Amino acid sequence: MNLIFDIGCNEGEWVQTMLRRYPSCKFVCVEPQEQLVNTLNYKFKGAVNEGQIKIYNKAVSNEEGTINLYPASDNTISTTSEEFRHNSCFAASEKIMQNGKMFKNLYSYGEPIQVETITLNKLIDENGVPDLLKLDVEGHEYEAFLGLTHKVPLITFEWHDRLSHKAVKAVEYLSTIGFTKFDTEIWHL
């Protein structure tokens, strides 16, 4: 691996794992939450200064501009997707947890903030074609893929069971630009 894109980087745990596996690899990290970008810049200061890691404080979408980001009580589920905010397991699950609360009552979303967007094509134009593209953007994966118009070697993306129709749309779209094999993660509750 020479170049990896981590879209929805959050606090960079996945990047840390991949850095250990591929110590000479370059990384492009995209994260729309400013406080997490500050964390990433601090955590990876040396690699950023050496040019091994490039960090964008943006959300990936189908076009450049701005979009609403809904900060969450748990930063790992902040989202630009209205559908995710209202229908994911974090908002709609009736599962009762050990503490007696319903799963959906453990999480909340704040008022939206505007964040800048960038497309996957623009990231490729600026950084080159990644060997691996990891996408974890809490329900906005399909829209993010619409900003990609040519195949890259490997993609992995997260999807949620309550939004499986969007995962199907993403796979259908990706197949139109040449993808035939997929590696996905599911958050099922």
* Number of E-state strands: 9
Strands side by side in the biggest sheet: 3-2-1-7-8-9
Radius of gyration: 16 Å
Q: Can you summarize the main beta sheet?
A: 6 strands, parallel
Description:
- It is a single chain.
- This protein has 189 residues and is of the alpha/beta class.
- 32% of the residues lie in helices and 23% in strands.
- The chain has helices at residues 13-21, 34-43, 45-49, 82-87, 89-92, 120-127, 141-145, 164-176; strands at residues 3-7, 26-30, 53-56, 59-60, 65-69, 113-118, 132-135, 154-160, 183-187.
- The strands form two sheets. Strands 3-2-1-7-8-9 form a six-stranded parallel sheet, with helices on both faces.
Secondary structure elements and pairings:
Elements: E1 3-7, H1 13-21, E2 26-30, H2 34-43, H3 45-49, E3 53-56, E4 59-60, E5 65-69, H4 82-87, H5 89-92, E6 113-118, H6 120-127, E7 132-135, H7 141-145, E8 154-160, H8 164-176, E9 183-187
Parallel strand pairs: 1-2, 1-7, 2-3, 4-6, 7-8, 8-9
Antiparallel strand pairs: 5-6
